[in-house]
């Protein structure tokens, strides 16, 4: 799924975390990942992208902190619905 939308270059000067974060944010902002849609688990995404799970965990944590995604207990990670209301990144 996301591996087709997120192309990373393992030999790039840009870190894997940065590449994955940038691609996810771009996808969210252009609507490729709609508000409220579920993202794959860290294990699944890491396997799809052929990167360490820790890399994906760190990316997801950054996106959680920035408000792009939300974690729903016992359900998974979802694109924040606050994006539609223009509240991401605002106090």
Automatic annotation (TrEMBL):
<protein>
    <submittedName>
        <fullName>GntR family transcriptional regulator</fullName>
    </submittedName>
</protein>
<feature type="domain" description="HTH gntR-type">
    <location>
        <begin position="14"/>
        <end position="82"/>
    </location>
</feature>
<dbReference type="InterPro" id="IPR000524">
    <property type="entry name" value="Tscrpt_reg_HTH_GntR"/>
</dbReference>
<dbReference type="InterPro" id="IPR036390">
    <property type="entry name" value="WH_DNA-bd_sf"/>
</dbReference>
<keyword id="KW-0663">Pyridoxal phosphate</keyword>
<keyword id="KW-0238">DNA-binding</keyword>
<dbReference type="Pfam" id="PF00392">
    <property type="entry name" value="GntR"/>
</dbReference>
<keyword id="KW-0804">Transcription</keyword>
<dbReference type="InterPro" id="IPR051446">
    <property type="entry name" value="HTH_trans_reg/aminotransferase"/>
</dbReference>
<keyword id="KW-0805">Transcription regulation</keyword>
<dbReference type="InterPro" id="IPR036388">
    <property type="entry name" value="WH-like_DNA-bd_sf"/>
</dbReference>
């Amino acid at each position: 799924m996301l591996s087709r939308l997120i192309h990373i270059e393992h030999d790039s000067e840009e870190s894997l975390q940065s590449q994955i974060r940038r691609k996810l944010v771009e996808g969210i902002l252009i609507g490729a990942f709609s508000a409220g849609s579920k993202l794959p688990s860290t294990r699944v995404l890491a396997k799809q992208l052929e990167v360490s799970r820790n890399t994906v965990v760190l990316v997801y944590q950054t996106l959680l902190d920035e408000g792009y995604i939300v974690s729903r207990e016992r359900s998974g990670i979802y694109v924040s619905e606050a994006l539609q209301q223009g509240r991401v990144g605002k106090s």
